[in-house]
Amino acid sequence: MTQAKSKQQSFDRLTDDGLAELRSEIGKEIIGPPGFITEATRDGIKHFALGSGDENPLWLDEDYACKSPHGGLMAPPFILLAMNRTAWGARGLRGIHSMFSGAYFEWHRPIRLGDRLTSKTILKDIEVKQKSQFAGRTIKQIREVTFWDSAGEVVAVARPYSFRMERDAAHEKGKYKQLTQAHYTLDEYARIAAEYDKEVRQGSKARYWQDVEVGEQLPHVVKGPLTVTDIIVWLLGFGGQWLRAHGDAVRWYSRHPKGAIVNSFGAYEPPEIVHWDHDFARRVGVPAAYDYGPQRMAWLGHLMTNWMGDHGFLRNMDVQVRRFNLVGDTTWCRGKVAEKLQDGERYLVRCEIWAEDQRGDVTAKGTATVELPSNGA
């Protein structure tokens, strides 16, 4: 094998023709591979929950779950992320980088052990931003995905979106070049590690709507310091977008040459390489490898299910992923009660939620609405 260093790969430009081609797809179904999982099995639930760092016994302990109001094992709300592969990663604009930037989720019912879901994704809209601070001209690509159960009933609807930009333009802009990776002393790491043992989970004790006060803080959930291992374990439950191995991977790169990234020793990798390869992350204008945007949404889902307890139901969540969460960063998922509402017989609480790193920067923010039981007071 040659010992010569591979020539750096050049990337595609964002063209008007490419944009016009993408516009012609608005309203059409996005065809792609099936979800990483199609059924909420015991193992699928376990791998997704643990990949999110969520050890709620409602997902993991069948004896506990059978004594809950649900009468059996349940799945984390964001297991939907593993049940569709066409909604979270943007399609079209071949060779143009995609960054997941947020989503609105609405659940019609909880997801239970044994649920088999199908889904359909459409391209909802695109918006052009001529001058962004990160990469010049960028495209906001909005999708809509609907999930059905085996009876044909809608289980959930989501509207995720991504920003598309030229990799070289993002590198040249260097908006985030001042960000540096975190380093921790043994004492600093020990203080973060100790927070995991203090995690508060409402669990089997009902949180009644009447007992909630506007302005009250939700007990936070800590995630990190983020490692590449954390990302690998996340992928064991989430499944990724374009992850393939050996012959399956080679054939995929042959069919989709614009999706192939040449790594430092001349072999092909998927665009997801930005999540574990620091050098390639820098090529797209990020100082180091970083987490998956949907991963942070699952973390905020963990915050909400901890707070609402086994008797609550997460109705919706709307989150913007605003900044990069680099390998090495520690994230605190926080929230507070913003509003109490009644919708007929539903007793609802709207919370403001956010993810904050060790720098004090808010890397994701949004709202979540939960339905709580009423004590009739």
Task: List key phrases describing it.
377 residues, alpha+beta, Thiol Ester Dehydrase, Chain A, 3 domains, nine-stranded antiparallel beta sheet, two-stranded antiparallel sheet, 10 helices, 28% strand
Name the overall outline.
Answer: globular
Helix content: 10-25%
CATH homologous group name of the largest domain: Hotdog Thioesterase
Write the CATH fold name of the largest domain. Answer: Thiol Ester Dehydrase, Chain A
Strand order of the largest sheet: 2-3-4-1-8-11-10-9-5
Number of strands: 11
Overall structural class, as computed from helix and strand content, comes to alpha+beta
Can you tell me about this structure?
This protein folds into 3 domains: 13-40 and 75-174, Roll (Thiol Ester Dehydrase, Chain A), CATH 3.10.129; 179-230 and 292-377, Roll (Thiol Ester Dehydrase, Chain A), CATH 3.10.129.10; 241-291, no CATH class. The strands form 2 sheets. Strands 2-3-4-1-8-11-10-9-5 form a 9-stranded antiparallel β-sheet. Strands 6-7 form a two-stranded antiparallel sheet. It is built from 10 helices and 11 strands. It is globular, with a radius of gyration of 21 Å. The longest helix has 16 residues, at 293-308. The termini are far apart. With 377 residues, the chain is α+β, with helices and mostly antiparallel strands.
